[in-house]
Amino acid sequence: MGKVKGLVLESDERHVILLTREGEYLRLPARGRLYESGSEGEFSRPSPFRHARAFGLVAGLILLLLSTLLWHNQPRAYLALDINPSLTLVLNSRARVVRAQGHNFQGTGLLESLDLRGFKAREALEAILEESLSRGHLSTEEKNMVFLSLAGSPGFRLEEQDLQAWISQALWDLQVDAYLWVARCSAEKGREALGREISLNAQLLGEQLQAEGGKAPDLPGPPGTIRDFIRTFNPDFTFSEEDFIPGKAGERGRPETPAPPGQTGRENKKNN
User: Fold this and answer.
1) What is the SS3 string spanning 33-65?
2) Cα–Cα distance for residue pair 272/266, rounded to 1 Å
3) Phi, psi of 42 (to 5 degrees)
4) What is the mean pLDDT of residues 79-105?
5) Residues 175, 169: Cα–Cα separation, whole Å
6) What is the pTM of this model?
7) pLDDT tens digits, residue range 236-266?
8) Diameter of the chain by CA atoms?
9) 121-134 and 160-174 helices cross at what angle (nearest 10)?
10) Which candidate, 78, 79, 82, places its Cα nearest to that of 103?
């Protein structure tokens, strides 16, 4: 930063207009001082690198902001939901939706009418259930099946208990009876299932049945959705009474005979 002498042409608290002896007009910072027009004075000339430093600071702040946004939009967990629509929600570190993918016609169609990006996981699940009810994928007259699994690291902010409570409350509010299956696994399994474009619920159910000695698909299965899985392998699996959410039947209590997965109450009656 150098010094320059000149004649004051105009002055206020912020700037002074100066005519130098070389005939150059300069607009310099006054730093809160007032100068009399026509007087001569010596002033500090700003460094030519000052603006470059300011630009570098702004650019650095912009890069920091962008990197923060990119960090928060990185996939950190996967939330898979199967009713009849089959879909996966990709969550960031704040458990907000950054992307959603359908695994069947119903799931893709549902997501076309719902832009869930930026939604909290709970808000997204509630919106999906409401839309499923309006489209007839959930019924207030029959027993429904809801499969839900969360794939995330051990430190992720959501747990099975959260999902169980949220879905139970939402089904109660919608007055929908349903059997609820909730599972938890590593983020890697969720990423793998999404990469294979299959439902994580179908994959985990297959692994569970295989561990229990039941039917399970050979590699590279399982089928893309829970319903495809059930139709293909007809697993020997039933819900327990503890899995039943009495959304509409709250006053009547739980049903005497739990329905097997993939069947509505009406279908169950037909098969009995």
Assistant:
1) CCCCCCCEEEEEECCCCHHHHHHHHHHHHHHHH
2) 10
3) -110, 130
4) 93
5) 10
6) 0.65
7) 677 888 889 887 765 554 444 444 444 433 3
8) 106
9) 30
10) 82
